[in-house]
Specification:
The complex is a heterodimer of chains A (312) and B (313).
Chain A (H helix, E strand, L loop, with lengths): L2 E12 L2 E12 L3 E5 L6 H8 L7 E6 L2 E2 L4 H7 E4 L11 H11 L4 H14 L15 H12 L6 E5 L7 H16 L3 E5 L3 H4 L4 E6 L2 E6 L1 H5 L5 E6 L3 H7 L6 E7 L2 E6 L2 H14 L6 E5 L3 H16 L2
Parallel strand pairs in A: 3-8, 3-9, 6-7, 7-8
Antiparallel strand pairs in A: 1-2, 1-4, 4-5, 9-10, 11-13, 11-14, 12-13
Chain B lengths: L8 E10 L2 E11 L4 E5 L6 H8 L7 E6 L2 E2 L4 H7 E4 L11 H11 L4 H15 L14 H12 L6 E5 L7 H16 L3 E5 L3 H4 L4 E6 L2 E6 L1 H7 L4 E7 L2 H10 L4 E5 L2 E6 L6 H10 L4 E7 L3 H14 L1
Parallel strand pairs in B: 3-8, 3-9, 6-7, 7-8
Antiparallel strand pairs in B: 1-2, 1-4, 4-5, 9-10, 11-13, 11-14, 12-13
Helix pairs in contact in B: 3-4, 3-5, 4-5
The chains are: A alpha/beta (312), B alpha/beta (313).
């Protein structure tokens, strides 16, 4: 299958800061690719280079076959880009915003009305066509932003944290629209701070300090959590953390609210041993069970690992 | 002396109208001392209005409430001294250092001299900001600004802390660290009332309340809500042609059908008895079903099902 995006040693520096550090990766046509990572990892900079709005310092990127450095103009017609702070015209109505974007992207006049009607239906904004954009709810603004990015029927969508600050119900609706586009064959590259959204992608990439440190299917990445996981509830979190490394088979742990996620080689075998281990030290156990690590546990582990590796 | 309170927050029939619009509609709930209480709801469902009433900033149209035993209508000024508040758009001064921001907020709370200095040291240590105290706030990363805002909100040692979407837009690692701080505060008997759109954070609360269109539609510990409040089941379906699968499932009238990577999640009442029928439908439409299994609902599944159900009523 053809690649929608291919980069080779793509790099961007802002003076001495290396925001994106020689990343090479590819995204297949038709993928929903979720790019996740901490703030400042380089996700937005990567997207801006791929959209052709920011020049790389060095390296190459081809988007739908076009060179982003030599031919950024060609990208405009093929790519729908929704930046983090997407600017709608607040005093224009939903319909007028769409007409405005149709004008910018020189959508053929004959097709315009039809396409706008279809997008309004698709984004579930038909009833709100005449409402000024400023008076839409947060979730509806995002849907309108997406509809505007889709006005020229792009084959690739670049979406930068489109659901940030949006409530769960609106997020679900937004994702249902993305799934629909995915099923129609549109390639989607999306950044998100929500781990549960990463589960809705068919490919996920983890960025950290300007590098893409892992890429794969969500199911495969989940397996990168170290060993098996036990969930422990105890009122003595700090004391437990201090002595855990003495537990035979201990690999790592993470604090999750009032519970500890403990990674061990063999969870089932360790469970009774851990109970005895804690009781012998006078630490009460409220609950202890074997649990499945999620993407979040895997990512936190990978980021910690990357942190130790980069430390001198 | 202040009244002794058995609850940190107690609301009875609390209501607020803006003109004809009922923002908060007769809600009643209690928050236990030392609890982390998660207040969840879509945008515009009444979360912030409720918090503003409990802070004594706006008056209820009807009903009553007490925060730390203090009547929010009769003694709103007494509340301000004993509660902390970190709003969605917390107002730190970007051109002041972290330390200077704390001095500013400390003075606003009436702290002076030694007491101010001591509290500043304590909150800086608690939030891990001691090394960064001389940095300009504008130069702190998002996660650190959030911690600074929390430090400012707890300078006066409030017994009750309101946090309105404190982690919006913060990355997963920083959010984990932030929640760890909240747990430390709760362990020291600070009651925490928090709103969030992150369901993984909601899972970390001791108890939750779902609010929708101004009304409470579910309350309880996260585990209990997941067990008792999901009308129906979630089925994970793997099939060769998810595109066809999704269409078939929607046509079969299943209320929630969503694609997760290559898998389909279908949710609705009575699905456990329809697994064979669904598989047959998928088979007939050449969707190529590989497996169907009931999976435990996520908190988000339960939340969405309850909101939709409430919409239909």
């Amino acid at each position: 299958m053809m690649e929608a995006i291919v980069t080779q040693k793509l790099r961007r520096q802002f003076r001495k800061t290396v925001a994106v550090k020689d990343i090479s990766f590819s995204i297949k046509q038709g993928d929903i690719f979720g790019l996740i990572g901490p703030d400042g990892a380089g996700k937005t900079t990567t997207l801006r280079m791929l959209a052709g709005v920011l020049k790389p310092t060095s390296g190459q990127a081809h988007v739908l076959g076009e060179d982003v450095v030599r031919n950024p103009e060609a990208l405009r017609d093929k790519v729908g880009y929704m930046p983090q702070h997407f600017s709608l015209y607040g005093d224009l109505s939903v319909l007028e915003n769409l007409q405005f974007f149709a004008e910018i992207y020189s959508t053929p006049r004959a097709k315009r009305a039809d396409r706008i009607a279809r997008l309004l239906r698709f984004a579930q904004l038909e009833q709100f066509a005449d409402r000024p954009a400023a008076k839409l709810s947060g979730g509806m603004k995002k849907k309108l932003g997406l509809a505007c990015a889709l006005i020229h029927n792009p084959r690739l969508l670049l979406l930068d944290e489109p659901t940030n600050g949006v409530d769960p119900v609106s997020r679900r609706e937004f994702w249902d629209i993305l799934s629909e586009l995915h099923l129609q064959g549109v390639t989607i590259l999306i950044t998100t701070p929500y781990m549960d959204e990463a589960e809705r992608c068919n490919q996920v990439g983890l960025m950290f300090r300007g590098e893409l440190i892992e890429q794969g299917e969500p199911e495969a990445l989940r397996q990168l959590a170290p060993g098996e996981m036990l969930a422990l509830y105890t009122p003595e979190l700090a004391r437990t953390e201090a002595i855990l490394p003495e537990l035979p088979g201990y690999i790592a742990h993470q604090v999750y609210g009032d519970r500890l996620h403990i990674f061990v080689a063999d969870a089932a075998a360790t469970k009774p041993r851990l109970t005895a281990f804690l009781q012998a030290r006078g630490i009460p156990v409220q609950a202890l069970y074997v649990d499945e690590p999620r993407l979040e546990e895997a990512f936190i582990h990978l980021i910690r690992q990357a942190r130790t590796e980069t430390q001198p | 002396m202040s009244e002794t309170a058995s609850y940190a927050v107690e609301a009875r029939g609390l209501t607020r109208k803006f003109g004809d619009f009922v923002a908060v509609d007769h809600i009643s709930f209690v928050v236990e001392p030392g609890e982390i209480f998660g207040f969840l709801g879509p945008n515009g469902s009444g979360k912030t209005t409720t918090i503003r009433m409990l802070l004594g900033l706006i008056r209820p149209t009807e009903g009553e409430a007490r925060a730390l035993g203090i009547d929010i209508v009769r003694k709103p000024e007494a509340i301000a001294r004993r509660v902390g508040y970190m709003s969605q758009k917390f107002s730190l001064y970007p051109d002041l250092t972290a330390d200077e921001n704390l001095t500013f907020y400390g003075r606003a709370y009436g702290l002076r001299g030694r007491a101010l200095k001591r509290r500043k040291e304590e909150v800086l240590a608690l939030t891990g900001l001691t090394q960064r105290r001389q940095r300009l706030t504008a130069n702190l990363a998002g996660g650190w600004q959030q911690r600074l805002a929390l430090a400012a909100a707890i300078l006066h040692q409030p017994e009750l802390l309101f946090l309105d979407e404190p982690t919006a837009g913060v990355d997963p690692v920083s959010r984990r660290n932030f929640w760890r701080l909240l747990y430390n505060l709760a362990a020291q008997k600070t009651t925490i009332f928090v709103t969030t759109h992150y369901m993984d954070e909601a899972e970390q609360c001791h108890r939750l309340a779902f609010i929708h269109r101004g009304r409470l539609i579910a309350t309880g510990p996260p585990g209990e809500i997941k067990r008792d409040r999901m009308q129906g089941q979630v089925v994970e379906i793997i099939c060769d042609q998810p595109q066809i699968g999704i269409r078939v499932l929607r046509e079969a009238g299943i209320p929630e059908v969503a694609l997760y990577g290559k898998r389909i999640h279908a949710a609705g009442p009575g699905l456990e008895n329809r697994l064979d029928a669904i598989e047959n439908l998928l088979e007939k439409a050449d969707a190529g079903p590989q497996s169907l299994r009931i999976i435990p609902p996520s908190l988000e599944d339960v939340f969405i099902a309850n909101v939709k159900n409430h919409n239909e009523q």
